[in-house]
Write a structure and sequence with these properties.
This protein has two domains: 132 residues, Up-down Bundle (Four Helix Bundle (Hemerythrin (Met), subunit A)); 204 residues, Translation initiation factor eif-2b, domain 2 (Rossmann fold). Helices cover 40% and strands 17% of the residues. The chain is built from eleven helices and 16 strands. α2 runs antiparallel to α5 and α3 packs antiparallel against α4.
Length: 351
C-alpha cells in the first residue's frame, strides 16, 4: 500500500494529493507553516491523515524553539496547537491528535526542554502507528457486513491516502478483496474536488479491485436497478447521537440507500467521535472557495466566471439513515445515543 504520510528522520514526507492521478510527487515538510499549508490546501486529506500530519507539524513547530522554561514551552505549544487546529475546522481528528500530544506532554515529568521535544516526536510516531493498527482492526470487523459477492458504492476517498494504514471504508473493501470475496466497487466521483475520481479510483486500480467510476448523481439509479448490496463511507466527525459529517454528497447517498433498502455503513476510528457535540446540527461545517465549483479541479472553467457558488466541504448524515458504524473495537448499532456513550474512546497510544 502507498504511504501518504511518512516520517523521514528529520522531516515529514507527504504525497502531494493535488497532483494525482497524473503525477506522483512528494513534499518535504520541515516547518509548521508547510504542514499547515498542506492540510489547508488538501495536499494531504482524510481525517486520520491530517491528524497525523498535524502531530508531526506540532513537533516541527517546536523543534527549533529556543526558550528554557517548561512553562514557556507549554505556552508556545498552545499557540502552535491553535494555529494548526485552524487549518480545517470539521475533521475532529485534527484537534484530537493535537490534544492527545498536549495531554501526554503536559502529564510527563520531563523538565528538560530537549527531552520534551523528543517526547513530542515519539508521540507523533506512536499516533501514526496507532492509526495503522486501527485501520487493520476496522477492516477485520467490517467483514461481518460484506457478503461473499458484494457490489459496493463508496464516496470520497478513505484509503491509504486518507489514513496512516490501509484505510477506513476502503480498508474494509480492500480486506474483503484480499480475502477472496468477489467485490465490485462503484466509486462516486465526489464533486467538486473529485477525490473519488482522482484518488479512490487510483487506489482501486493499484489494488486491482474491480471498479467503475460513477457521477455522484448516478448511485440512486444503480440502487433502483438492484445493482448495489451496500454503501460504505468514512467520516470526519461523529456526534454523540451518531450523526456523521463526511464529504459533501454523503447525505443524499444515505437518503437514496434508505429509500431503496440498501444498508448504509460508516467506517471510522473512535478518534473521529466527538462526544462533546450532542447532535449533527452542532458540527461545524467548513466552507471552501467558490472557485472549486466554477472550475474542474481548479483548471477548466465550467460556468460563467461571475457565477455565485455555495461550497460546503461536508454534509451531515442523521443517525436514522445509518445502518451501523464500524470501528476498531467492533460494530456499533442503533440506538447510537446509548451505544456510543457505552463505547467511549480509545487513547491515542497505549498507556
Amino acid at each position: 500500500m502507498i504511504q501518504a504520510v511518512a516520517w523521514k528522520n528529520d522531516y515529514l514526507e507527504l504525497l502531494d494529493q493535488t497532483l494525482l492521478p497524473e503525477t506522483t510527487g512528494y513534499l518535504e515538510i520541515r516547518r509548521i507553516e508547510e504542514a499547515f499549508e498542506a492540510v489547508q490546501n488538501l495536499r494531504v486529506r482524510g481525517a486520520p491523515a491530517i491528524g497525523i500530519t498535524a502531530a508531526y507539524g506540532l513537533y516541527l513547530g517546536l523543534r527549533d524553539w529556543t526558550g528554557a522554561s517548561r512553562d514557556q514551552f507549554f505556552q508556545a505549544m498552545e499557540e502552535k496547537i491553535r494555529y494548526l487546529a485552524s487549518a480545517r475546522p470539521t475533521a475532529v481528528n485534527l484537534r484530537w491528535a493535537l490534544e492527545e500530544l498536549r495531554r501526554n506532554v503536559q502529564n510527563s515529568a520531563e523538565t528538560d526542554i530537549p527531552a520534551l521535544k523528543e517526547r513530542l516526536l515519539r508521540l507523533a510516531v506512536d499516533l501514526h502507528e496507532d492509526d495503522r493498527r486501527r485501520c487493520e482492526l476496522m477492516a477485520q470487523h467490517g467483514q461481518a457486513v460484506v457478503p461473499e459477492n458484494a457490489r459496493i458504492v463508496t464516496h470520497c476517498n478513505t484509503g491509504a491516502l486518507a489514513t496512516g494504514g490501509i484505510g477506513t471504508a476502503f480498508g474494509v473493501i480492500y480486506h474483503a478483496h484480499r480475502s477472496g470475496k468477489k467485490v465490485q466497487v462503484f466509486a462516486d466521483e465526489t464533486r467538486p474536488v473529485l477525490q473519488g475520481a482522482r484518488l479512490t479510483m487510483w487506489e482501486l486500480a493499484a489494488a486491482r479491485i474491480p471498479s467503475q467510476l460513477i457521477c455522484d448523481s448516478m448511485a440512486a439509479s444503480l440502487m433502483k436497478q438492484k445493482q448495489v448490496d451496500l454503501v460504505i463511507v468514512g467520516a470526519d466527525r461523529i456526534a454523540a447521537d451518531g450523526s456523521t459529517a463526511n464529504k459533501i454528497g454523503t447525505y443524499p447517498l444515505a437518503i437514496a440507500a434508505k429509500f431503496h433498502g440498501v444498508p448504509f455503513y460508516v467506517a471510522a476510528p473512535l478518534s473521529t467521535f466527538d462526544l462533546s457535540i450532542s447532535s449533527g446540527q452542532d458540527i461545524p461545517i467548513e466552507m471552501r472557495n467558490e472557485s472549486e465549483i466554477r472550475r474542474v479541479f481548479n483548471k477548466s472553467l465550467i460556468t460563467v466566471p461571475e457565477a455565485k457558488c455555495w461550497n460546503p466541504a461536508f454534509d451531515v448524515t442523521p443517525p436514522e439513515l445509518i445502518t451501523a458504524i464500524i470501528t476498531e473495537r467492533g460494530i456499533i448499532k442503533p440506538p447510537y445515543g446509548e451505544t456510543i456513550k457505552a463505547e467511549g474512546r480509545l487513547p491515542a497510544r497505549p498507556q
